[in-house]
Amino acid sequence: MSTPSRHPNLTALVTIARREITRILRIWAQTLVPPAITMTLYFLIFGSLIGARIGDMGGYDYMDFIVPGLVMMAIIQNSYGNISSSFFGAKFGRHIEEMLVSPMPNWVILGGYVAGAVLRGLLVGVIVMCIAMLFTEVRIPHPLITISTVLLGATIFSLAGFINAIFARKFDDVAIVPTFILTPLTYLGGVFYSVKLLPDWAQVLTHANPIFYMVNAFRYGLLNTSDVPIWIAFALMIGFVVVLGGLGLWLLKRGVGLRS
Amino acid sequence: MSQAPALEIHELRKIYAGGVEALKGISLDVQPGDFFALLGPNGAGKSTLIGIVSSLVNASSGSVKVFGVDIARDREAAMRLLGLVPQEVNFNFFEKPFEILCNYAGFYGIPRAEAKICAEQELRRAQLWDKAHTMARTLSGGMKRRLMIARAMMTRPRLLILDEPTAGVDIEIRRGMWRTLKEVNAAGTTVILTTHYLEEAESLCRNLAIIDGGRIIQNGPMKTLLAQLDVEGFLLDIDGDLPNVLPVIDGVEIRAVDGRTLDLAMPRTMNLNRIFANLDTAGIRVRSMRTKTNRLEELFVRMTGNKDEAA
User: Fold this and answer.
1) ipTM of the complex
2) Digit-coded pLDDT (tens) for A135-146
3) B20 Cβ partners below 8 Å, 6+ apart?
4) Model pTM?
C-alpha cells in the first residue's frame, strides 16, 4: 500500500525539482552548452579584444568589470528560459494535468518549478564563472552577497518565466518576452558599462530596470563596487520575489491558463 | 453510521466563458465499491463532469464530494482519494514509463523508494515491465492506455475514474484491461467508467447514468434500466431457404434479411416457444439464434435519440 511520507509536500517539491534537473541534464546540449559558448565569445570579443582598447571601467580592468554582469546575465536568461519552456511544455503536452489532479498545493507546484529553474541558473552560473577564470582572476570578497544575489536573481526570473508560461498559448508567446523585454533589459542593465557613463536622463531610466540592481549587487559581491547602494538592490530584489511569487500563486489559485 | 458515497454530486452547473452551459444542474451519487458507467453522446457533458470532479475544471455552482470530502473545501484531501485516467494521453512523451510512475507517486507525497517498488508492480500488472525504461513516445496506443491506468493505480485510489480508457485499442488489449479493472474493483476500489463501447459498460458495470445535453436523463441499476426495454431483437439463421410468404405472429415483427436469415422484433414478455412453434408450422427450421443488438445500446439510442452515437 502506497502511503505518503511524513512530509508529502516536501516529497512532491523534490520530485518536481528532480524531474526538472533530469530534464536539464538529459538535454544538456540545449541547456548547458549554449550559454557556455555564448559567454566564451563575450569574454573573448568584448573582454579580451575590445576590452583591451577600452581600458578601465569603473576603476577596474574591463574584463574584470564585465565578468559579474555576464555571469548574472547567463543566470537570469537560463532561469527564465528553463521554467518558461518547461512549464509551457507541460501545458502544451498536457502532462501538467498530472500535477493539477494531484493533492499538491499550489505553492509546491510553483516552488518545485522555481527550484528546478534556480538550479539550472546556478549550474550555468558555475560554468560561466569557470570560463571567466580562464580569462581573468576571479575573487569573491563578499561570498554571502554573491550567493544571495544569484539566488534572488534566479528566483525573480524563474517566477517571471513561470508567469509568462501561465499566460502563453503557443510557443511563440514564450519567446516574445525574452526577445523583446528580457534581452534589452539585460543589455541596458549595466552588464557592459557603468551607469555613470550615461547621460542623466538615461541614468534615471536605468534605475527603473530591475536587472541593473542584480548586476550591481553581484558586481559588489565580486569587485566590491556598485552603482547603487547594496541595501536598495536587496530590498528591491526581495520585493520582486514577494510580488512575483504572490502573483504566481494567485494565478495558480484562479487556474488562469490551466483550469477551464 | 452509513458510509459516505464514493462520489456525491449535487446540483452541479458549468457555464463556460463563451456562455455554453455544459452542465445544467447534475445530481448523482455513486456508492462505495460500485462499478459505475457514465454514458452519453459526444458533447453531453461527461468530460466536463469528470473535469470538475478531478479539479481540472472549475464548477460554476453546485458541490462535489469524494467519500464525503468536499473538493471545494478540501481539494487536497479529496484528490488523495481519487485516481484519473483521462481520455487524452497526458504523460510526458520524453520520459520513461518507470520515471512517469515514480514521479506521479512523488506528486502524491509517496517516498521515492516506495514509489519504485509500486511502479514495478503496476508496470508488471499492465504487462509493460519490459518497456519500463524506454521512451514513452515509442509505446503503442494500447500500451499508452495501459500506462495511464498503471499510473492512476500508483496511489491506490479509493475512487478510480476512467474516461474512455479503451478507445482505439484492439479487442485483445481491451479484454485485458477489463480484467484489470474487474480486479481493481474486486479489491474494493470504486470505478466510474465512461465509454462508447456499450457492451463494455454492460458487461462491467452494475449501475449507470446517461447524461445528455448537460442533464442526467437516466440513472439506476443496469438490470433495472435494461428491463425498461419492451422489445428485443434477434437474428435467426434458417436451415434451407425461406418460404416466399413469412408467417404472421401477433405482436411480432418478422423480416427477411436474406434468403436464410430472419430479423425478429418481439415484446420482452413474449414466450419464445410460441414463436418457434409458429415458425415450425410454417416450415421454417431455425438452426441458430443471436441477439440482434446490444441491449444497452438500444436503451442508449432510445434515451438520447442519437443513433449515430450508438453505431
Assistant:
1) 0.87
2) 888 888 899 999
3) none
4) 0.84
